[in-house]
Amino acid sequence: MHRYLRRCLLLTIAAGLAVPLSLTSSATATTAVSVRTVAHQVRTSTLAAGATQTLRLPSAAHDIAVHWRGAPNARVVVSLGDAAGRFGPAVDAGRDEVGEQRGNGRTYGALLAAHGAVAARVTTDRAVHDLAVLGLADGQRVTRQVSGVAAAVAAVSQPPVLSRAQWGADESLRFDSTGAEIFPPAFYTTKKLIVHHTAGANNDPDPAATIRSIYYYHAVTQGWGDIGYNFLIDETGRIYEGRHSRDYPAGVVPSGDNAAGQGVTGAHTGGWNSGTVGVALLGTLTDRDATAAARDSLTSFLAWEADRNAIDPKATSTFVNPVSGATITTANIAGHRDYASTECPGGVFYASLPALRTAVADRIAGTPGSTPPPPDTTAPTTPNGLTAVGGYRSVALSWAASTDNVAVTGYAVARSTKSATTGFTQVATTTVTTWTNGGLGKGKRYWYRVRATDAAGNVSAWSAVVSGDAA
Ligand SMILES: [Zn+2]
How far is the CA of 43 from the centre of ligand 1 (A)? Predict the structure, then answer.
């Protein structure tokens, strides 16, 4: 029996969740604010065709979703009401694309931004049974420490990813009442990259809270045991770890892989979840493109995934599902609609996928390792401590070694027979910090200075001038 069938009329569940205060690029401890998420669910046994019913939640909701038994083609509209009894415009209950794959006989509406609503007025064009309104909101906040984000080492570096701990995933939601993991991870080599939109609200002021709601809706209400997407990206370009893959050591950026580098199977594209990575952009991209920040992060993320999995970002290829053996020929970076009959990832954004593939290829080609590093232009430090000691028809020089960001490869010695300021010519090069000038005129004075050269050919300034008298 599915867990949603065991729930009573009014359901209240609190879950420990966290909001990161900062996103860093080093492996450091980060203070996070845990948030207790509260879920209320109100049900009605039957709603007749054309009937309207108002269902009241006991507290204000950040997100609301409506779901019912069967009737997958029912047109259900929802108007959200505030505490003063005012109701907003009726909107289509929509469909949650992950819920559409659930296959458990229920129809799951989209997660709707509720803006503190406490009631939902529901109307249907045909009879539906066991209709439920789910309200989700953050509750009590608790400060705690989580590990920070570290930079990964790869040919194409991994962009920063907010870990599940950092966005506050309550890992207990992945387990049933007996402690068994509901959706145990399975891993396959990543061959295809699939982009989605969540079809939720644009200009979301609290995307982490929205992700917590999506997670709850998928994991608990729909019974998957986890969020369906492998990764999510908000409109400010922050990337979030989605589907759990494993517990990473502190400071390690979540890759969605097992230790062998195979990707975890999510629940984002029906029939094609194994061997693919599903990335969802938050919001609805039907009539507008992704933000520049989201697009940039998506490009970096796909470049990293494509490069490390040897996926040609501009190619189309035939994919064999490693579990079912089914085959499909798609672009290696494709939209959800290339795999199924869906509007996802939104028409305007979908039209930009060719440009996205080119940007991903360019980002892979432009990374260090495939292009030479910029030339070194840092000169060695100026030699100091130069001394000159006169000997029989000779002067012996010594000085302190220079330092440099690359290697100091040698020194040049210049001499003047005229004065401390004019008439210098180079008389020697050496790889050590001493040099003796022989064959000099007895009783004559000579002036010397030295400079250092590095492996890139940069030279230091000349040292201070010293004089020496040949005996
Ligand atoms: Zn999708």
Answer: 28
Give residue 105 CA to ligand 1 midpoint distance, Å: 20
Residues 3-365, CATH architecture: 3-Layer(aba) Sandwich (3.40)
Burial of 157 (0-12, 13-18, 19+ CB in 10 A): middle
Query: What secondary structure, in 3-state letters, does 97-123 show?
Result: CCHHHCCCCEEECCCEEEEEEEEEEEE
Ligand 1 center–CA 96 separation, angstroms: 9
Closest of 273, 198, 265, 263 to residue 234, by C-alpha? 198
Query: Domain map of the chain by residue range?
Result: 3-365, 387-469
- Element counts in the chain: helices (H) and strands (E): 6, 24
Q: What angle is formed at CA 238 by the lines to CA 154 and CA 133, rounded to 5 degrees? A: 130
Token pair, residue 282, equals 């938050």
CB distance 187 to 264 below 8 Å: yes
Cα angle value 355/341/65 (rounded, 5°): 100
69-96 per-position pLDDT tens digit: 999 999 999 999 999 999 999 999 999 9
pLDDT at position 32 is 57
CB contact set of 172 (below 8 Å; sequence gap of 6+) = 15, 16
**Residue with the two structure tokens 């609805």:** 284
pLDDT of residue 143: 66
Phi, psi (5° rounding) for residue 451? -140, 160
Q: What is the mean pLDDT of the chain?
A: 89
Return the number of other C-beta atoms located less than 10 Å from residue 9's C-beta: 10
The CATH architecture annotation of domain 387-469 reads Sandwich (2.60)
Angle in degrees, 0-180, between the axes of helices 292-308 and 353-365, rounded to the nearest 10: 60
Q: Are 378 and 363 in contact (CB under 8 A)?
A: no
**How far, in Å, CA of 425 to CA of 416, rounded?**
7
- Distance (Å) from CA 197 to ligand 1 centroid: 6
Q: Cis before residue 345, ω within 30 degrees of 0?
A: yes
Q: 53 CA to middle of ligand 1, Å?
A: 31
What are the distances in angstroms from CA 162 to CA 40, 46, 99, 169? 27, 42, 25, 11
Ligand 1 centroid distance, CA of 417 (Å):
82
